[in-house]
Backbone:
């Protein structure tokens, strides 16, 4: 049985988009948790994998969250647990329909927007490859869809929510892989600036920026602006 006072442990990685989502959510909730960054190298990636990640997650991936006797994996499932564990501040909107729409946006960030970005990761030196062109086109269409959502609101689902956290982290990788936002989506660019100013986001994305910088990797301007002060 898990007691609320038991320490939460979150296993993540320095370049884990999904782990960063959960870390931001936990920070926004004001939860006390231990962050365990599993071993990672640019050449070997996550090999050898952390034994607790291997034991808990059949997919052998971070994030993994342990809270007493409870062991969870998958960032969306962890979001749901955090919301039940610490209801305030709420990160899902009130009402069944509004909550369903926000959950769908969070899901689409991972399962609709992000797969083309994953394809771009292996095509960085093949900019005109048809698969790379198609991936950037898919990203541009998705940005226009999000631009439309922001016509009458500051955040994707109305109030700031997990939907914003998920898409912020996904688009961070999109921008790094060459699927950049541009002048066609001014509201979306303003949205990203608003999200970037949140302390939880600055802490997590800033740490990721610092890691990338330490590896000599280029940073998009918005991400470079989040680097921790020396």
Residues:
């Amino acid at each position: 049985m898990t007691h609320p006072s038991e320490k939460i442990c979150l296993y993540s990685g320095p370049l884990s988009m999904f782990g960063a989502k959960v870390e931001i959510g936990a920070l926004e909730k004001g939860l006390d948790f231990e962050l365990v960054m599993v071993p990672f190298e640019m050449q070997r990636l996550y090999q050898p994998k952390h034994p607790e990640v291997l034991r808990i997650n059949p997919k052998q991936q971070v994030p993994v969250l342990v809270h007493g006797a409870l062991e969870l994996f998958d960032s969306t499932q962890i979001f749901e647990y955090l919301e039940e564990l610490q209801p305030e501040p709420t990160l899902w909107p009130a009402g069944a329909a509004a909550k369903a729409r926000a959950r769908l946006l969070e899901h689409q960030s991972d399962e609709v927007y992000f797969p083309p970005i994953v394809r771009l990761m292996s095509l960085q030196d093949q900019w005109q490859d048809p698969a790379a062109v198609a991936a950037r086109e898919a990203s541009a269409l998705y940005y226009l869809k999000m631009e439309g959502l922001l016509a009458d609101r500051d955040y994707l689902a109305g109030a700031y929510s997990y939907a914003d956290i998920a898409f912020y982290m996904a688009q961070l990788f999109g921008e790094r892989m060459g699927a950049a936002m541009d002048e066609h989506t001014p509201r979306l660019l303003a949205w990203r600036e608003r999200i970037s100013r949140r302390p939880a986001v600055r802490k997590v994305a800033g740490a990721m920026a610092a890691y990338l910088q330490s590896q000599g990797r280029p940073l998009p301007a918005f991400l470079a602006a989040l680097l921790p002060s020396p």
